[in-house]
TrEMBL record, chains A, B:
<dbReference type="GO" id="GO:0016757">
    <property type="term" value="F:glycosyltransferase activity"/>
</dbReference>
<keyword id="KW-0328">Glycosyltransferase</keyword>
<keyword id="KW-0808">Transferase</keyword>
<keyword id="KW-0479">Metal-binding</keyword>
<dbReference type="InterPro" id="IPR029044">
    <property type="entry name" value="Nucleotide-diphossugar_trans"/>
</dbReference>
<dbReference type="Pfam" id="PF01501">
    <property type="entry name" value="Glyco_transf_8"/>
</dbReference>
<protein>
    <submittedName>
        <fullName>Glycosyltransferase family 8 protein</fullName>
    </submittedName>
</protein>
<dbReference type="InterPro" id="IPR002495">
    <property type="entry name" value="Glyco_trans_8"/>
</dbReference>
<dbReference type="GO" id="GO:0046872">
    <property type="term" value="F:metal ion binding"/>
</dbReference>
<dbReference type="InterPro" id="IPR050748">
    <property type="entry name" value="Glycosyltrans_8_dom-fam"/>
</dbReference>
Length: 288, 288
C-alpha cells in the first residue's frame, strides 16, 4: 500500500527537501510513496525538476498550490508568512480520499523503514508526534504555555495526521484567534499552535526512534547510560531531525551526523545534476 | 569492463570486509566487480555466505585458497602470520589472464566512483599507492628506513597492481631475505617491505582522493586552509580509510565518519541477515 507524505516548503528549502526524500526512498526500497507538496511561491521550473526527481525515483508527486487569498483573514506574525498555516490546515487542501498522511520537515534524514510509524493506530487522536522529553527545552515550553496546562510539548517536524478527524475537528478560526491573542508568545508558530490547542489530542511516539534531535547525540547517550550509542541509533532510529539554527547543508556545520548528511546530500546532488543534464541534452536536441 | 578487486583477510575481518564491499557496490552502480579473496584459514561456511552476499549483489566471487606449505621457507615475525605475504605475492596465486587488480584493505568505505583509479596509467610502475604525506608518521618512517633512501612512505591499504610487471619483477626470496635481516625494525610488515624494496617503483596517487585517513579530518582541513571540509571530502574522496588501532566496528570508536560507517554497517548487516534467513528457510524446507 502506498504511503502518503506531506511536505510544505518554499524555494529556500527545496534543496534539503530533495535530500530528505532521497534518504526516504533509499532506505525504504520496495515502497511506493505519494509526495504531496503544499506551497504557494515555488517557480514552475523548480516544481518540474522536483517532479522529475520524484518520478525518476519511481514515486508520485502531487503539487498543491495554495492561493494566499484563502488566508486573507489570517493574522501574520513577525517575519513568518502565511505558509505557517499550511501544515495545520493541510487537510483542507489535500484530496478528500486520503485518510492519513505523514508530514515530514525538510531538515530530516530518513535512515530506516518508516512503515511501522505510518501504520500506527491513531485511536481517535488527531496527530501522532514525538515529545522531545530528553531535552531541557521542554520545561521552558511548558512554562511558556502554562495557561494551557500542557503535559508535553510535541515537536511538529514529524507528524502523522488523522485526516478524517482533522477535517471534522480543526477550525481555522480557532487557530487565527489564538495567533491574534498570543502572538507575542509564539516562538515557533505552527508548533506552538499545535501544542497549545491540540496537545491532548496528540498521540506520543518515541522520539529516539521517530524524531531524534541530531544535536544531542551525547545527551541521549548519557541519559540512557550508554545504551543509545551510534550502533543503537543506526539500528533503531528511523528519523534523524537536524533541529535548530545550524543546518548541515550550510557552511560551518559540525556534529555527529555531519558526514552522514553530507554523503546523502552528495548522492542527491548527483541525481539532480543527472536530471538537469538530461533536460539540457533534450533541450539542445530540440533546438537542433 | 569488469574491475578486479583483491582482498586478503582472515575470519576476524570478514565483517568489515562485507561493509567495505557493500559501500563499493552501492557507490559504483552499473559496474561489475570480480572479487578475489586470497586466504588460508576461513571456514567453508563463511566463504559460502560471502559468496552468496557478493553474488546477491550482482558481482563475482573467486576464492583463492593458499596452502601455507608454499611458505615453508618464509620467516615469520612476532605475532604476524604468513598471511602478511599474501598481498605482495598475490600475483603468484591470481589467474594468469588478469593484468591489473586493485587491492583494498577491509577497514575502508568506498564512497564514490572508483573507475578512474582503476584505469590509472601505471606507466611501468609496479604499484600505485598513496603517500600519507599529510601526517607526521611519514617522517618517522623515513628515518626508520633511512638505509633505503625513501622519498616517500606509501600506505599499502589501497594498492593498484601491475600484474604482468609484478610477475616479472617480484622475487619472493628477496622479500624473505629482507624480513630475516630487518625483522627487528618492521612495524607494519607488508607495508614496510613494500616501501623498503619497491618504493621507487610505486606511482603516487592523491591520498585525499584515494586513501583518506579518517582519523585526520581536522588536520587535512587545517593544512588545506579549510578547503578540505566535509563537502569537499564527500564530493572528492573515493576511499575513506579507517587507519589505526581504533576501528569503527568496535565499541567506543568515535570520529568524524562514525555515523557514516555505522550506517553502511547497518545496511550490510541487514543484507547479510536476509541471506542467512533465506538460507535457514531453505534448510528447513529441505528438512521437511
Amino acid at each position: 500500500m502506498k504511503m502518503n507524505i506531506l511536505v510544505t516548503v518554499d524555494s529556500n528549502y527545496l534543496h534539503p527537501l530533495t535530500v530528505m526524500l532521497k534518504s526516504l526512498f533509499m532506505n525504504n526500497p520496495n515502497e511506493q510513496f505519494s509526495i504531496y507538496l503544499v506551497q504557494s511561491s515555488i517557480p514552475d521550473q523548480q516544481l518540474e525538476l522536483l517532479d522529475a526527481f520524484i518520478s525518476g525515483e519511481g514515486h508520485e508527486f502531487h503539487n498543491i498550490p495554495i492561493d494566499d487569498q484563502l488566508f486573507s483573514d489570517a493574522p501574520t506574525l513577525m517575519h513568518y508568512t502565511k505558509t505557517m498555516y499550511y501544515r495545520l490546515l493541510a487537510h483542507k487542501f489535500l484530496p478528500q480520499h486520503l485518510d492519513r498522511i505523514l508530514y515530514l520537515d525538510p531538515d530530516i534524514l530518513v535512515i530506516n523503514r518508516i512503515r511501522e510509524l505510518y501504520e500506527l493506530d491513531l485511536e481517535g487522536y488527531l496527530f501522532a508526534a514525538a515529545d522531545h522529553r530528553t531535552m531541557p527545552i521542554k520545561e521552558i515550553n511548558k512554562i511558556r504555555f502554562n495557561p494551557f496546562d500542557l503535559e508535553a510539548y510535541y515537536n511538529s517536524g514529524v507528524l502523522l495526521m488523522n485526516l478524517p478527524l482533522l477535517r471534522e475537528t480543526i477550525d481555522e478560526k480557532e487557530i487565527f484567534d489564538f495567533v491574534e491573542k498570543y502572538h507575542s508568545k509564539l516562538i515557533m508558530p505552527d508548533q506552538d499552535i499545535m501544542n497549545a490547542l491540540y496537545s491532548k489530542k496528540i498521540k506520543g511516539i518515541d522520539e529516539v526512534k521517530y524524531n531524534y534531535d541530531a544535536r544531542y547525540y551525547n545527551i541521549y547517550k548519557l541519559k540512557s547510560s550508554g545504551l543509545f550509542d551510534m550502533d543503537y541509533v543506526m539500528n533503531h532510529t528511523v528519523i534523524l531531525h537536524f533541529c535548530g539554527k545550524k543546518k548541515p547543508w550550510k557552511k560551518n556545520y559540525s556534529g555527529k551526523f555531519h558526514s552522514l548528511y553530507k554523503h546523502y546530500e552528495k548522492i542527491t546532488n548527483d541525481a539532480v545534476a543527472a536530471l538537469e543534464g538530461a533536460k539540457m541534452g533534450a533541450a539542445s536536441e530540440k533546438a537542433n
